[in-house]
Amino acid sequence: MILNDVLGTDVLDSEGLRVGEVSDVRFAVDAAPGQLMSKARLVGIIVSPRTAASFLGFERQNLTQPWPVAQLLRWRHRGSFLVLWEDIAMMGPESVNLREGFTPYSSGLTQ
């Protein structure tokens, strides 16, 4: 599956209720860089209850300039949360289904 195919996809809880849309993903780099690039692994997805638009990097807590853009994006993505890969039951072209009892983690946005 191509990452672009997942962005904007509806995210459903274990009962089939919509909790938001995939607006971003989180990767982790666990090793030192290789000859070309470091290997990355998918940690989880960011679910936004209102929009699938990009965070444009403003989810980083120390990124605050330009101020109006940072405030607008933080407001627009309020309530966003991270769902770990282990909490995803199924990822398909129409929706992402979460397992029962999934844990929503902070997306990194300053609320």
Largest sheet: 7 strands, mixed
- Name of the level-1 CATH class: Mainly Beta
**What order do the SSEs take from the amino end to the carboxyl end, as H and E?**
HEEEHEEEE
Rough shape?
Answer: globular
Number of helical regions: 2
Number of extended strands? 7
Name the helicity range: 10-25%
Uncertain stretches of 5 or more adjacent residues: none
* Mean pLDDT rating: 77
Distance between the termini: 32 Å
Please tell me the CATH architecture by its name: Roll
Radius of gyration: 15 Å
* Proportion of beta-strand residues: 25-35%
Number of domains: 1
Oligomeric state? single chain
- In the CATH hierarchy, what is the superfamily? PRC-barrel domain
Can I get a quick summary?
The chain is mainly beta and 111 residues long. Helix content is 13%, strand content 34%. It has helices at residues 3-6, 67-76, and strands at 10-12, 18-29, 40-48, 81-84, 88-91, 95-98, 105-106.
Explained architecture:
The chain is mainly beta. The chain has a single domain, classed as PRC-barrel domain (SH3 type barrels, Roll), CATH 2.30.30. The chain is built from two helices and seven strands, in the order αβββαββββ. The protein has a seven-stranded mixed beta sheet, with no helix packed on it. 23% of the residues are buried. The mean pLDDT is 77.
